[in-house]
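Why DNA polymerase beta? Reviewers of the renewal asked for a concrete example.
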Amino acid sequence: MEMTNRQVARVLEEIGQLLEVQGENRFKVRAYMAAADRIGHLTGPVGDLTEEELEAIPGIGRALAGKIHQIVQTGTCTERERLIDATPPGLIPLLDLPGVGPKTVRRLWTELGVEDTDSLIAAARNRRVRALKGFGAKKESDILRAAETAGKMTERMDVSGAKRRAAVLMAAIPGEAWVAGSLRRGRSTIGDIDIVTTAPPGETNRALRRIADSMIDEGERKTSVRIEGRRADIRYADTAELGTMLLYLTGSKAFNIRLRGIAAEQGMRLNEYGLLMRESGEVRTFPTEEGVFGALGMVPVPPELREDRGEVEYALEGRLPDLVDAGAIRGDLHVHSEWSDGTLSLPDIADEGEKKGYEYILITDHAAGIGVTHGLDAARLERQRHEIERVNRNAACTLLAGIEVDILADGHLSLPDTALKACDLVVASVHTAFGQDADTMTRRMIVAIENEHVDIIGHPTARLIGRRPPTAVDMDRIIDAAAATGTALEINASPARLDLDDIYIRQAKEQGVNLSIGTDAHRRSDLEAMRYGVALARRGWCGPSDILNTRPLSALLRADE
Ligand code: DGT
Ligand code: CA
Ligand code: CA
Ligand code: ZN
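Here is what the prediction returned.
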């Protein structure tokens, strides 16, 4: 497996951080950080360089060249392994907490004996962190909040991890199986995996025993397993009862309760095995969900809507909203190339777009700004536009020249208006100063929304599932401002983000705000995330006309005028 320059740079950066946690020589720390930067900026693959050629790079000496060579070959090096061995494993995740760097981790460890998230939370609650020189009560409460959020957030899986585990289970089950629960409803995070199957329980349990980490509970009606550290519930159903079983296990709980109420009003009792007619005592069973909905006098409710947020009333009246589906998507509006921190070349992206049957892909590399290495300045952006024009001459999928510009802490953008004006579409996003209070963050983003060159606000809350909480932004005000200016809000489809929440998507849609779905792809496989974004749009009750990237190219660009 070939390591990308970016991956090699990450390993070097990690070594630098671990050296700092270990309190080692700061020149050595700096040498690794500088080497990471150099490797990140190389034009060709680092794997093509010999040790001698590596050594010829300024700032990379013989010892470092040897280590880089080792990293390219094996993904790690003895120095990194030594550091990992010397560092309590619970300390390493602390490096990812917002506002906590290697220096802080070192001091928490050596001065307070903190070794993991739990001991950090305990130290902060006991007011021991503020006692450290230079820390104080404010920093202590920031750290406590970050540590508590991180702990809570890792309790749920992101959808890609859930899909991967579900696929392993489905492949092992000797018969037909269907995903149910929150995963089927397209939620952005998943508590546990739910699967319904008509396969024989005995044989299935034996098969599951072979692939699961452990069996939590094993039976003829249902079995629970642990797979890759997470829980999955497998429910056995007869084909004749599959409709009510799938309906029950898909939920949500609130939707199920409503449905039972509807049944009760009509003199019936609904459970996972069928529909009991109270008067006659007859039990009707249903092989499909459609049959159950029909018997209740409802049109079938798509899984993404099943939250008891008004969909039941609509379904009883037979007029559910027309929801966007994957087939209506004509392009991706957020893709990074190797011009910034992505791995794909522009021709690669055009090829991928063609394979997907897309009409267009908006190239949105990072603009130069705080915290982004490789960001494009105005000159490189212009060069990229020429390259895009060249690629477009023989591409079936049109590349659009866009940019992902940073919304700086005061709302100004990290590129001048003249550079933005030349873009087909501009995505503006927050990538720094995440900790601003609600009012500052909201005003900051409204300045960007009101900028006439900004077309789309990228990942509006900047959350990273399981890793960084949403900013304090007041989404009501953002939606109002987007509605007033005609600026679109992004539904970021990356499973790491899935940013906006469905309730805000629906609110934006209801206020006439356009939504754009972008994968934020940095590598080939990331482009597959579009379906998660579509599921989220459906959860926000969006139809095709609410989504910018269902428009044909000409209409999309007209929206920019
Ligand atoms: P999760 O796992 O937290 O992401 O969310 P779900 O919706 O997958 O919830 P889960 O796994 O606890 O249960 C799966 C489905 O089973 C749920 O969507 C509806 C149904 N269910 C679970 N508990 C109850 C309950 O107490 N009452 C009713 N009516 N249905 C329930
Ligand atoms: Ca579940
Ligand atoms: Ca469950
Ligand atoms: Zn971004």
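Residues 257 and 308 are 9 Å apart (CA to CA). This is the kind of structural detail the renewal will allow us to pursue systematically.
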